[in-house]
Amino acid sequence: MASFEYMDSYMMMVAQNRGILRNSPFSQVQSVSQVQLTFRSDDPIKVFTDLRMEVLRWLAKRAGRLLPKHAWDGESFDMLEVGSQPVSALSLDEPKYWCMRISDADKTVARRSWTTETGILLHESEVMLGCRLQCVALAESPEFQASIPGLVKQVVENHEAYLDGRRITIKPWHIDSDSDVDNLVEFLLNPQRTRPVIAISLGGKDGFDGHGVINASNLAWKTLGAAHVVTLSGNASYRLTYKMGKEFSVYHKAVRTYRPRMNVYEDLPGEHPLALPSRIEDWSEGGIRGFEQFLVEQALRDTVIGVDIYRELPSFAEIHTQVLKQRRNKASQLGASDKELLEIALEENDVLSQKIQEDKDTYDGLLQASEADRQQVEAERDQSRADYRMLQSRLTYLEAALKAIGKQEQIPIPDTFEDLEAWCANYLSGYVHVMPRAFRAASKSGFENPTLAYNTLQILRDYFVPMKRDGGLDKKNAYDEALAGLGLEDTPSFSGARAGEQGDQYKVRYNGRSRYLDRHIKGSSTRDERYAFRLYYFWDDDSQQVVVGSFPGHLTTRAT
Fold first, then answer.
1. Are residues 227 and 299 in contact, defined by beta-carbon separation less than 8 angstroms?
2. Which CATH class is domain 2-16+167-301?
3. Strand partners for 200
4. CA atoms of 117 and 102, how far apart (whole Å)
């Protein structure tokens, strides 16, 4: 059941992709992919020069004619002659920046071209390289598969490249030993990570490692610089489960995408979607290969949608205006005539106008893609809500029917928290949603009476939820009596204005927004974690269920 929930997240991502990277006749300029890498060295000037030469070698194979001699010296140049691809390069002294642009005509679609921009920036002891690919269509643009320019792969193969502070290669990052898993967990939870981690389990249910369901090497090649592709042995998957909990692990040849800014205490598992092998093999859009391509498109799409693509590495047009400005200032200092300065100023004005138009076209493309995103996600959300409500109604009807014929579900009550997640998925789904933060709190607690926690969760399911859904004083009394039978009571927690005194302890993020744990069920008032019991929750009107944020121990109060 939990796996179905995670796959819904993948299907939501599919909906976001449709009509954005494949077929977008509404936009003249379509941002396809963007990669930004870092290079470290004791001699950054040499690295800067070496990378520029690497780009020039790549450029020379696509220009259609020989590059001018001064191009190899790092100087600015233009190649706009008939018979060659439009190629330009610009060099800036302060800051030290070199960039190029080439436009390739599409070989099969008229009036469509592919523009590749690359910028290299020397920043203190580091060198940054950025590569952007855009599709420019002056007519209808048929669907295409998103990609990353081969230049990125060439650079990574020949130089020590870093992404999110991690050295990358063209091969997947394999995780096997305990120390490998520890490094992976640290990387997953690093708030500075900007790119998704696609984790592929190699271990099967038989306990033996084999090949993954999807081709990890192929995926790493196609998403180089846009995502981190990881393979895990069976032993590594067990270690990952121990470190992060079953709800955030990946095992038995499944595939999981860990999105940036991951927080195992607040995130829902579906925010880092899991795909089981059977669902990958039966993927509706092409089976295994279709799922691989979907992961590629999603990773590349996330490099441009909702991202300030020119924040650190300016566009070619932006650098062009800066080059002309420096040229005008230098000419003025050398005593150039008014006529010469006017010519430079007019050229600068033309370039600025061109830049404004390019920025507008790029912005319009991103804006319309984002709007398509929003509309599709809202439609999928509304449909999911309707489906969920129907399933809730169906579940309630079936349970009532079973009671009417004298049959009632027998719910086992464990005496440890070892299988808490599975128990909640099996017996609480549709009524009580337990947050990952609560699972982790329970697994790490020293509470000596786990059966009390299970019984309390069942009371929420059987008494509190009907009380909230149907109303009635009789249901409230039944709820209070059920709690009293366990020596418990339900009262407001320290929330609202006073919750700020405790930081974010009384807040959880649910369905994309912050919510207060405004109620709690309490037992003994002792502070000894072996005997003290507290369960913090709130009622969600939208999903018509209880959301449990923490148990079995106390959250911090002003008294403590």
1. yes
2. alpha beta
3. 231, 255
4. 7
| CA dist., res. 522 & res. 493, Å (int) | 10
Q: Where are the domains of the chain?
A: 2-16+167-301, 25-162+309-360, 420-550
| Buried-state track 428-444, b at ≥16 Cβ within 10 A, e below 16 | bbbbbbbbbbbbbbbee
Tokens representing 451?
A: 């059966």
Q: How far apart are the first and last CA of the chain?
A: 39
**CA-to-CA distance for 412 and 451, rounded, in angstroms?**
10
| Summary count for the chain: helices (H), strands (E) | 15, 20
Identify the CA nearest to 296 among candidates 17, 74, 557, 38.
17
pLDDT in tens, 223-239: 999 999 999 999 999 99
Q: What are phi and psi of 69, to 5 degrees?
A: -60, -40
Nearest in space to 232 (alpha carbons), one of 183, 272, 269, 192: 183
The 10s digit of each residue's pLDDT in 299-313 is 998 998 766 656 767
- Long-range contacts formed by 284-292: CB under 8 A, 24+ apart: 285/14, 288/213, 288/214, 291/214, 291/255, 292/214, 292/215, 292/218, 292/219, 292/222
Write down the residue that tokens 């790029």 correspond to.
362
The residues pairing with 406 across neighbouring beta strands, listed in sequence order, are none
* Helix orientation angle between 338-404 and 2-17, rounded to the nearest 10 degrees: 150
Q: What is the percent of the chain where pLDDT is above 90?
A: 44
Angle between helical axes of 450-459 and 473-484 (0-180°, round to 10): 170
